[in-house]
Structure formats: C-alpha cells, structure tokens
Amino acid sequence: MTNANSPATPEQRTITVDVDGLPITATRVGAGRPVLLLHGGGGPMTVLPWAAGFAAARNAEVIVPVHPGFNGTPRPESLHSPRGLAELYLQMLDALELEEVTVVGNSIGGWIAVEIAALGSSRVSGVVLVDAVGLSVPGHPYPDFFSLTPAEIAMRTYHDPERFGVDPSQLPPEIQAAMAGNRATLAVYGGDMADPTLASRLPSIRVRVLVVWGAADRIGDPEVGAAYAQQIPGARLEIISDAGHLPQIETPTRLTELVGSFSDPR
Questions:
Q1: What digits encode the pLDDT tens for the residues 30-65?
Q2: pLDDT mean across residues, the chain
Q3: Is residue 1 part of a domain?
Q4: For residue 237, what are the contacts with CB-CB under 8 A and spacing of at least 6?
Q5: The domain that contains 102 carries what CATH number?
Q6: Residue 2, in any domain of the structure
Q7: How many domains does the structure of the chain reveal?
Q8: Taking each helix axis from N to C terminus, what angle separates 108-119 and 173-190, rounded to the nearest 10 degrees?
Q9: Regarding beta strands 208-214 and 101-106, do their DSSP bridges make them parallel or antiparallel, or are they unpaired?
Q10: Handedness of CA 152, 155, 156, 158 (dihedral sign)
Q11: What is the pLDDT averaged over residues 98-119?
C-alpha cells in the first residue's frame, strides 16, 4: 500500500526510437519535465530504481536509453565511442521532440553526458555529471578496470562495499551472461576509461553543468570531479561524503535533492 505522504509509483513504458535505422530501446518513467538519464557500465538496472524515485519526487519524466550493445541490443561497428553515443542521443532528443532536457550521466554515462554538453544543443538546458569517467587527470589514473576481481570492483565502487557489493557468481546464469556481454560492450566504448583529447573540449561548454561526486569513489577519485568542475566554465562541484562511484544506489535521496534543485525551472 502506498503511504498517503509518499509519491505514487510512476508509470514505466518501454519504447523503441529509430535513429537513422538504429533502434534505441529506452524506458520512460513518470511524467513532467524531461530528464535523459545515461547509465554506466553496469547497465540500465544501475539507474532505473533511482529514475523511478526521482520521477515520483520531482514530477519529471525520466528517459533511460540502453546504450547500443548493452543488454543484447544491436550495436553497429561504426558506433564505438562516447562521442558517437552523444551524437546519437542528441538525434534521439530530436526524434522525441523534447525541450529543456536535463541530461544526467553516471560513470561512462557521465562521459557521454559531457560530450553532449560539448556538442551543444538547444534542446539541453543542463547537464549533471555523476562520478563521470573520461577525463585524464595527471596523478589520478583510472584503475585497470577489466583486470579487477568482483571484490576489488566493489571496494573501489562503494562507500559501504559489504552492504552494496554483489557477487556475480551467486546470480542466475542468464544475468551472469548479460553482465559479461555488457562488460564486453563497455570495453568497446570505454577502453582505458579516458580520452586525452576530452580536456580540450571542456572550455567551450556553454550549458549549465553540475558535477556530483562520491567521496569514496576509487574508480575515478574526487580529484577527477574537481578537475571537471575547474575546466568547465561555471560548473559547480558537490561532494557526497557517504557515497562512492554510484551515488544513485548508496545515497539516492541526496542525489535526488541535488539533481532536482539543479533542474528546477529558473
């Protein structure tokens, strides 16, 4: 039963958007101001619960596309970079005829989001980077992610790894297979998690940008977040003390507050 003081669970719909012959699968959650939410290497399930909570709390419609190649979706060979995904998603916004969109991206989704900011679009009103990878910061390298064990990934990902870490070997075989496929697709898009040319595009960004970072993130440490905020004109940095690489999982309410206040009409 829904508490009278709690937001109702928002409706979720699965859609397919054709962009130049490529079908993009997406989940639309709720109704209201549009938010484009871009998932990280763990796939859309790492952001969908937060999407539902945000849509209910902030009267928003959250669109969560599946990056082509994730969850068994098709990926053309020509699509192999966050920059290419950014161009694709701007075309998707055109196809959906959305305006005043807030783009939120986590991890590699944050990398895609900053590329969207750098490309510029009249349809995008603001961009939120949540523990984004992509930016090379001297002295703060990303780990060799694909060599890490699940336990090592959990230690680097979470403020509280014992509570939030998952042992893939305990999951059903079909989920393990999907995770393996997503990991392979992440390697295509992300490689070593950094693009040495990205920094040169940041000073040209003109859209509003909020950078949100978990203090315990050891995939991309908080100095990466500080560098993003310093190099993007007008960007603001917010640190969440009790979160790591995935604040939408560890501190969903705090992330909702930050994104909600940033995306509210001005």
A1: 999 999 999 999 999 999 999 999 999 999 999 999
A2: 94
A3: no
A4: 211, 213, 225, 226, 228, 229
A5: 3.40.50.1820
A6: no
A7: 1
A8: 40
A9: unpaired
A10: positive
A11: 98
